[in-house]
Design goal:
single chain, mainly beta, SH3 type barrels, endopeptidase fold (from Nostoc punctiforme), 3 domains, six-stranded antiparallel beta sheet, five-stranded antiparallel beta sheet, about 15% helix, thiol protease, SH3-like_bac-type, SH3 domain-containing protein
Length: about 300
């Protein structure tokens, strides 16, 4: 009887649920084991790797965290707001950092500017000199975090500070500074294909139904990439690539149905094909890129995984 009660208490305490954290903020990009995705709802984050640790907060299913270390059956993690804590291993799916491509490899945090005319300052405070203003959708590399400000590097090498409210950070994602880890791309495409036939729902961004940009953002978020919600906003993220240099995982954009702006997006899967949520077909499908309707309505492509 005592054994059964103990198991019940353990189950409630963990799946009630348990993560660890302290109240201090740290940078979101420290060295670690890789990236983890929470597999349960209301999972507790605790102050130490045991049930005796105090509950700091609870995390939701599919939330992405940085995995810092493992001790026994527990993982020490870092949340997107910088807090650290412990989560029971049964409720975390970990993607190891070992499968990174060749080259100068390291953990890279990428941020996307979420507002228009966002000031880039010389230091992390309002007293810092405004160096320039950034547009919504601008992608930057995150170098540091202090007191609610992110130190970032632009694509031209310029560095500065952005207030946290105007930056969406994809934290703890390991990437090569040289050749891309193609196995990651293959896994992303396989994941996307698992939704073939899922119905089209305008404004949808879940397996219950997708629209085009909702499908893309959902697939990429599963691998730690935070993308804007709409197709025209997604078209401002990443590096522009020509159609003849497309690689698997690139985003392809279109103007359809007489639209004057980009209003459709899909994921290039190789062999001249892309996967997308089609309003015309009413579901997620694979279509040819180099012939027919989508050839004549193609606008550009962007590379987010690099």
């Amino acid at each position: 009887m005592e054994s059964k009660i103990g198991k019940i208490i353990f189950g409630v305490s963990v799946f009630g649920m348990t993560l660890i954290g302290n109240s201090f903020l740290h940078p979101v990009f420290a060295e670690g084991l890789g990236v983890g995705k929470v597999t349960g709802n209301y999972v507790n984050v605790r102050t130490e790797g045991s049930l005796s640790g105090s509950v700091i907060t609870q995390v939701s299913k599919d939330e992405v965290v940085t995995v810092l270390e493992k001790q026994g059956d527990w993982y020490r993690i870092r949340l997107s707001d910088g807090r650290e804590g412990w989560i029971y291993g049964e409720y975390l799916s970990v993607r190891s950092s070992n499968g990174v491509s060749r080259g100068d490899t390291g953990e890279v945090s990428v941020g996307v500017v979420t507002g228009n005319y966002v000031n880039l300052r010389s230091e992390g405070s309002l007293s810092g000199k405004v160096l320039m203003q950034l547009s919504k959708g601008t992608q930057v590399e995150v170098l540091d975090r202090q007191n609610g400000w992110y130190k970032v590097k632009l694509s031209n090498g310029q560095e500065g500070w952005i207030y946290r409210e105007y930056l969406s950070v994809r934290s703890g994602v390991y990437a090569s500074r040289g050749e891309v880890d193609r196995s990651l791309v293959d896994k992303l495409i396989d994941f996307a294909k698992s939704f073939l036939g899922t119905r089209y729902v305008y404004g949808g961004s879940s397996p219950k139904g997708f629209d085009c940009s909702g499908f893309v953002s959902y697939v990429f978020s599963n691998f730690g990439f935070s993308l804007p919600r709409t197709a025209d906003e997604q078209a401002n993220v990443g590096d522009t690539v020509t159609r003849d240099s497309l690689e698997k995982g690139d985003l392809v954009f279109f103007k359809t149905l007489g639209s004057s702006i980009i209003n459709h997006v899909g994921i290039y899967i190789g062999d001249g094909q892309f996967i997308h949520a089609s309003s015309g077909a009413g579901k997620v499908i694979i279509s040819p890129l180099n012939e027919g309707y989508y050839l004549s309505h193609y606008v550009k492509a962007k590379r987010v995984i690099k």
